[in-house]
Amino acid sequence: MLRLDIEKKLSSFTLRVNLKAEGATALIGPSGCGKSVTLKCIAGIMKPDRGYIEHDGTVLFDSERNINLPPQKRRIGYLFQSYALFQDMTVYGNISAGLKWEKDRALREKMLDDTVEMLHIGHLLKSKPYQLSGGEAQRVAIARMIVNRPEMMLFDEPFSALDIYLKEEIKAQFKSIVEKIGKDYMIVTHSMDEAYSLSSSLSIIDQGR
Questions:
Q1: Single pTM value for the model
Q2: Predicted confidence band at 81 (pLDDT cuts at 50, 70, 90)?
Q3: Rounded to a whole number, what is the distance in angstroms from the first to the last CA of the chain?
Q4: What secondary structure does DSSP assign to 41-91, as a single string?
Q5: Which end of the chain is more exposed for a tag (fewer CB within 10 A), N or C?
């Protein structure tokens, strides 16, 4: 379970988020309300001004106790809205980048092979990101995120980069993938349809609250 009680001053308002999340949670609200900032604070990419973040008993951030775990120690996977694949690397290189921390080469290769098999992207390993379709790029980005076995996953508008005609097909694939992984996840969206179809609970942000 994720427990979150944070405050972060932004340019036009102060974000204050207090929630508990378990399973599949959708974080919804209008553009610019603080949804993505909330995810980045959970992942450790941004630092709240004050507050507390805990996941499954591990304190990730506590301003009073001066705890702020770096992203690589949080065991939180983060999928950027743009997927942020390394354009000069092959698919294999992109996924391998998520395993730099693992020193055992044999184990590293097994983790990569298992992830590639799960997402059915073995035929793409030699491709560059510009050669991928929107759905393929999303699966590669998910592979890079889950290859190091995160304890929770964060998805920031995962369908916004897709052609409207592909969205329904990719959403079905996405749901199948995250259910197979079997970890808690939070998905940011401004679409109620996506929130209802991809989550079991909703948290709504309005005017930074």
A1: 0.87
A2: confident
A3: 20
A4: HHHTSS--SEEEEEETTEEEEETTTTEE--GGGTTEEEE-TT----TTS-H
A5: N
